[in-house]
Amino acid sequence: MLFSSITFLYYFLPIVLLLHTISPKPLKNTVLLISSLIFYAWGEPRLAVLLVISLIFHFICGLLIEKYKDKNKTIAKTVLCISALVSLGMIGYFKYTNFFIDTVNSALGTVIPLLKVSLPIGISFYTFQLVSYQIDVYRGMKAENNIIDFCTFISFFPQLIAGPIVRYVDISKELKERKVTLAQFSLGIRRFVFGLAKKILIANTLGELTEIFRASGDLSVLYFWMYAIAFTLYIYYDFSGYSDMAIGLSKMFGFEFPENFNYPYISKTVTEFWRRWHISLGSWFRDYVYFPMGGSRVNWKRHIINIGVVWALTGLWHGASWNFVLWGLYYGVFLIIEKFFLMDFLKKHKIFSHVYTMLATVIGFTIFNATTFPQIAHDLGGLIGLGGHPLVSAEALYYLKSFAVPFIVGAFFATPIAKNAVMKLNENKTANAILTVVEPIIIVAIVLFVTGSLVDGSFNPFLYFRF
Amino acid sequence: MEKKKINIRNLITSVMFLLVIFGLFIASIISPDALYSLTERRTLAQFPELSTETLLNGKFTGSFEGYTLDQFPERDSFRKLKAFYFMNIMNRGQVNKYYTVDGYIDKLEYPKNQAAFDNAFAIFKDVNDKFLKGTDCNVYLSLIPDKNYFMAAQNGYLSFDYDEITEEIKTNMPYATYIDIYNTLSLKNYYYTDQHWKQETLMPTVRALLAGMGKETNAEYDIVKVEKDFYGTYYGPSTFDKTSPDVIQYLTNDTIKNCKVTSYDSGIGKKTSVYTLADLEGNDMYDVYLGGPDALIVIENPNATTDAELVIFRDSFGSSISPLLIDAYAKITLVDFRYVNYNALNAFVKFENQDVLYLFSTLIMNNSLTFKK
User: Fold this and answer.
1) How many CB pairs under 8 A join A and B?
2) Catalytic residues of A
C-alpha cells in the first residue's frame, strides 16, 4: 500500500485513526501492529509471513542477548552474530544474489541462471532496524520483552517500507506510554499533508520530465542539465516527502520519529550534505559500521579505508548494481578530499562551496539514476557537451518553458526560506490570526489537489521503494 | 492569548482534515458504484472479487486501488481540480498531454514515431506491389493534418514538421499521386472536443479530392443537426472545464438515403446505412458516420451516373468524408488496415480499374504499428 493512494488516504487511514483512538490503552499497540501487517500484506501478502517470522525470531534473539550479555558473553555474541547473519542473509538473498550471479557471469563468462526472487518491499529498512536493535541490546540497551510492542516497533506502517530507520531507543518510551495531544496531532497533519504535496504535486511533476528526457530523440546539453537538475529535485521531494509523511503519521499516533532530511540542498560541503540527507541511514552506517571500524581514530590510511568501505556499502544499500557502488565511492572520494584537504577552504568561501556542493550533488544523482556504466558515461558526457549533442534543442526549450514553474517551486521549497518566513509570521499577532484561517484552508486545498491528482493518475510509487 | 490562537489553529486544522478524510471515506462507502463514465467513455472498475485466493495471490489488493479511483465520489470534479493545478498553478500548459486553445482541445502528438511511418510506407508499398501494380487502378494519396497542425506550433507547443512529413510521404509513395488538401482545411473544420473533422465543413476538401482524382460533384445536401451534445474523445481525458460540447451534423440527400451499405466485420456482411442513427446513443457519437471504423465497408450508389469505383484505404476520418464522395462513384469500398490484414485484401476486393485512395491522418501515420500484418 502507498501513502499516496486513495486506498490509504480514504480507507486505511481513517479506519486506523478511528480504531486507535477508541481502543483502550493496552490494545493500542495491537491495533497498530495488526494495521501495519495489513498495510504490508496489502502489497506483499506472501512476504508478510516472512516479516512475521523474522519479527518473532529477532524478538527471541533480543531477549537471549540481554539474558546472556553479562552472564555469558560468548553466547550473547553468538546469538548476536546469528541474528545479524539471518538479517543480512535475508537482504543478501533477496537483494544481492542476482547481482552476485551477474557479476560472476560477467567476470568469468559463465551462464549461471538468475534466481526468480522479488525484493520484499522495505527489507533494506527493516533489516537495518533489526540489526541495530540487536547491537544496541548487546551494548546494554534494555530489550523489549513485550512481543506486541517489539513487533509494532519494527512493523509500524509509517516507517516500515521506506524509513526513516527508526531505532528502538527513539520510540521505546512512546511504545509503553503515549498521549496524542492536539498540538502533536495537528503538527502531524501538517507534516503529512506537506509530505503529500512534496510527493504528488512537486516530485511527480519533475519526475515526468526525467521520463520525457529518457524517451527523447532530441537531446542537447541544456536538456541533459534540465534532466540532471529535475532528477536531483525529484529524488529530494520524493524521498523527503515520504519521510515527512512518515513523521507526520507517527505524530498522529503519538510517536516522534527522528528527522530524516534537513534541507540538504543548502549544504556547503558534501560532508554537510550527508548530515542533512537521509540522516537515519547516514547515522546508522556511522554508528554500526564506521565507528566499530575505528572511525577517524586510526591512522590516515585506515581512515581512508574506513570511509571507502562505508560509502561502498552505502552505495550498495541503495541498489544491487555496480553503478550504485560507484555512486557511493564517488561520495567517499569527496568526503576524503574534504576531510584531508578542502574543508578549511570551503568554510572560507561560502558561495563557491555551495555551488561546488550542488554540482557534486547533481552529478552524483546523474550517476545514481543511470542503470549501466555506458549510460553513466552517456549522461555525464552529455552534461559537458560530449556525444555530438547541440547546446540547445527545440524540445529542451519547450520543456524548459513548460517546467519553469515546477523548477522554481522545487528550488524554492528546497530551502528553509518559506519555513523561516512562516515562523516569523507566527510571531506577529495579526499574521498569526490570518494564518489561523489561511493555514487550514491551504492544508485542505493540498489534500483536495492531491486527491485530484491521484484520482486522475495512475500507479505512482516512491523512488526509494526499489531499495 | 497567542497560545490560545495556536490551539484554535490546531483545532481547525485537525477538524478540517478529519472532515475531509472521513467525509470522503463515508461518501466512498455509501455512494453506489457507477458502471460507466459518460465523460471518459469507458466502463468503470467494479468491486473486485474477494476470496481467500484473491487475497493471497494479491489480485484483490491489486484491483482495489483501481476500483477506488474509478468509483471515487465526484471523480470528474476532482479530475478538473488536477487540471486546474497543472494549468494554472504549475503553468504546465498541458495535462496528460492534452492542451486547449480557444476552446479547442487537442492531444500533443510528439515526437514523430519514425518506425511507425516506416511501417506504414512498407505496408502501403506491399499493397501496391501485390494488388495494384499491373492493374488499371489509379492510385492516389492524401494526408489529413491533425489539429496540432493548426494549434501546436502557433501556441508554443511541440509539433511535427508537417512539411517534412508531406515530402517524406511523397518520396516514399512515388506510385501514388499526391492530392494536397491542407489548403482546404483550418481549425474550424474540426470539433472542439474530438480529433475528427466536421462533415458539414468538408465540401471544399471533397472537391479537392475529387478534382485530384479527375472527378467532380455538384451534389447538394440537407444538413441535419443532432440535438444531443457531442462530447468527443478529448473531452473526458482532458478535464478542461471551459470547453463547450460539440454538435454533430450530417449531410444527406436522396443519393445518400438510397445508398446500399454493407459492413464486413470478421468477414460477415451486415446491412447498414450511411448514417447509423442508433450510434448517437452510444459511446462515441462520431460512429454515426458509417457505423464507425469497421474493417471493410462497401457503399453502393444506385443513383450513380458512372460505373467508376473508389477504394479508400482509410482511418476514422474517412468515415465522415466518404458519404460526400459517393456522388461521383457507383461504389466505394473502405478498408481499415487496423482491422483488416492487408495480405487478405484480394479476398474482398478485385483490383482492376478503380481509383484507389490512401487517405490517412498524420495521427494514424504516427501510430501505424497498430496496422494488422
Assistant:
1) 146
2) 318
When pLDDT is cut at 50, 70 and 90, the band that residue A230 belongs to is: very high
The predicted model scores a pTM of 0.91
Digit-coded pLDDT (tens) for A300-340: 999 999 999 999 999 999 989 898 999 999 999 999 999 99
Q: Of B96, B194, B164, B141, which is closest to residue B311 (Cα–Cα)?
A: B141
* ipTM summary value: 0.92
Grid coordinates representing A116 are: 526468480
Question: Measured between alpha carbons, how far apart are the two ends of chain A, in Å?
Answer: 16
In chain B, which residue ranges form alpha helices assigned H by DSSP? Answer: 2-30, 52-56, 59-70, 75-84, 114-127, 148-151, 162-172, 203-212, 235-238, 254-258, 317-325, 362-365
- A321 neighbors A101 (Cβ within 8 angstroms): no
Which grid cell is A153? 516497533
For the stretch B211-253, pLDDT in tens is: 999 999 999 999 999 999 999 989 888 888 777 889 999 999 9
Beta bridge partners of B313: B335, B358
Among the partner-chain residues A9, A189, A409, the one whose CB lies closest to the CB of B14 is: A189
In B, minimum Cα distance to A393 occurs at B158
Query: Rounded distance, CA B222 to CA A113, Å?
Result: 71
CB–CB contact A453 B82 (8 Å): yes
Nearest CB among A15, A46, A440 relative to B9 is that of A440
Site from A436, A438, A442, A453 to mutate, B interface, most B CB atoms within 10 angstroms? A436
CB distance A134 to A58 below 8 Å: yes
Q: Is B14 on the interface with A (CB under 8 A)?
A: yes
Q: Give the angle A376-A206-A257 at the CA atoms, nearest 5°.
A: 95
- Strand bridging mode B268-272 / B104-107: unpaired
Cα–Cα distance measured from residue B143 to residue B358, given in angstroms and rounded to the nearest whole number: 8
**pLDDT digits 0-9 by tens, B122-135:** 999 999 999 999 99
Residues 51-80 of A with CB under 8 A from B: none
Rounded to the nearest 10°, the torsion over CA B1, B4, B5, B8 is -160
What is the C-alpha separation between A118 and A41, in angstroms, rounded?
15
Closest CA–CA distance from residue A2 to any residue of chain B (Å): 10
Distance (Å, whole) CA A205 – CA A193: 17
Mutate to test the interface with A, among B4, B11, B15, B21 (most CBs of A within 10 A): B21
Are B25 and A11 inside 8 Å of each other by CB? yes
Residues 6+ apart with CB under 8 A from A455: A6, B69, B72, B75, B78, B79, B82
In this complex, which of B13, B28, B81 lies closest to A440 when CB atoms are compared?
B13
Is residue B190 within 8 Å of residue B197, measured between CB atoms? yes
Q: Do B10 and A449 touch (CB under 8 A)?
A: no
What pLDDT score was predicted for residue A465?
Answer: 55
Which cell numbers hold the place of A131?
A: 540489526
Report chain B residues whose CB lies below 8 A from the CB of A253. none
Is A406 touching B (CB cutoff 8 A)?
yes
Residues 301-340 of chain B whose Cβ lies under 8 A from any Cβ of chain A: none
- Tell me how crowded residue B261 is: count the other CB atoms within 10 A of its CB: 22
- Asked whether the beta carbons of residue B58 and residue A189 sit closer than 8 angstroms, the reply is no
pLDDT computed for residue B244 by the predictor: 84
Q: Does A394 touch chain B (CB under 8 A)?
A: yes
Tens-place pLDDT, residues A404-427: 999 999 999 999 999 999 999 989
Task: Among A186, A404, A453, select the one facing B14 at the smallest CB separation.
Answer: A186
User: With b meaning 16 or more CB within 10 Å and e meaning fewer, what string describes B215-244?
Assistant: bebebebeeeebeeebbbbbbbbbbbeebe
H-helix or E-strand spanning residue A407: helix A404-413
d(CA A234, CA A209): 9
